[in-house]
Amino acid sequence: MIKNCHQAKLWPLDIISGAFNERIFRTGKALLFFLSCDSRYRHSSARPAFLEVTVFWGGAVPMMMHPALLLWALPLLATVSAQYRNMPEGPWVNVYRQGFNFQCPHGQLLVAIRSHYSAEEGSDRLWSFDCQPTPQGFGEVTECWWDDINRAGMEWTSKCSNNGLVAGVQSWYFPGLLDREWQFYCCRYSRRCPYSCWQTTDVPQYHKEEGEMVVPSYGYFIRGAQTTFSGVLRDRQWKYILCRMTDFDCKFENF
Predict the structure, then answer these.
(1) Cβ neighbours of residue 43 closer than 8 Å, sequence gap 6 or more
(2) pLDDT category, 108, cuts 50, 70, 90?
(3) Which DSSP letter does residue 27 get?
(4) Are the C-beta atoms of 169 and 182 separated by less than 8 Å?
(5) Measured CA distances, 219 to 131, 234, 247 (Å)
(6) What is the per-residue pLDDT across 25-49, written as a single tens digit (0 to 9) for each?
(7) How many CA atoms, within 13 angstroms, populate the side-chain half-sphere of residue 59?
(8) 82 to 45, 88, 111: CA distances (angstroms)
(9) Rounded distance between C-alpha atoms, residue 233 and residue 215, angstroms
(10) How far apart are CA 165 and CA 195, in angstroms?
(11) SS3 sequence, 33-53?
């Protein structure tokens, strides 16, 4: 650490709580926050040249900061701490009102989706996904791609093009709409074609409830989804499109 910085006390979590607005890195149950001090004070013995805050959610917060900067930092810490303390147990791939990108490991496909709604956090949801290796008969992945972007605030239906299956999801939150844009990550296996496709019932069954969908039978895979958005309740319901895949190559490029 730069020598101009001063060692402060260990502050308990109920005093130092929240997150900074700059770069946030999440590692397990620890959050790391990094802030650069104003360059005007780089050569001043009265101010630190760098501020580092490590927040351990299991205990205390070690800091290296000048007391004046501590007073400046406390209001910034106040916003996100309540969000993290109120988060239900995950694991979740996102925090409220933040974008995320999730991809299954190579050779696996999405088989389970869970979400948790919060009206207090921008009518947003936390999301969790599980993957499963494909059957041996599928062979190796031929190609993968990000499919079309599906706009926030709208009803839409999206299926992976080119006979692809869903192997990931990315999403961006729009505070003006209290909704998200969505995009599926699709993978194709040789020239297999989908068949025996059907849609699930609404997930969640009612708006603002916790949502959970698990592919009900081995050999079915998520091809896409149909979703509606309530402008009044500011929440989505999903019907996931599940399909089986042929065990032979077929001539159709987008079945």
Answers:
(1) 49
(2) very high
(3) E
(4) yes
(5) 13, 34, 11
(6) 333 333 333 333 333 333 333 333 3
(7) 3
(8) 35, 12, 31
(9) 27
(10) 12
(11) EEEECCHHHCCCCCCCCEEEE
Contacts of 196 (CB under 8 A, 6+ apart): 243, 244
Helix (H) or strand (E) holding 158: strand 156-159
Cα within 13 Å of Cα(124), Cβ side: 23
Which of helix, strand or coil describes residue 76?
helix
The pTM is what? 0.68
Q: What is the mean pLDDT of residues 220-246?
A: 97
CA angle, 109 then 114 then 117, to 5°: 145
Do the Cβ atoms of 202 and 89 come closer than 8 Å? no
Mean pLDDT of 75-80: 49
Give the DSSP H/E element, type plus range, for residue 180: strand 179-188
Quick check: 58 and 7 in contact, CB under 8 A?
no
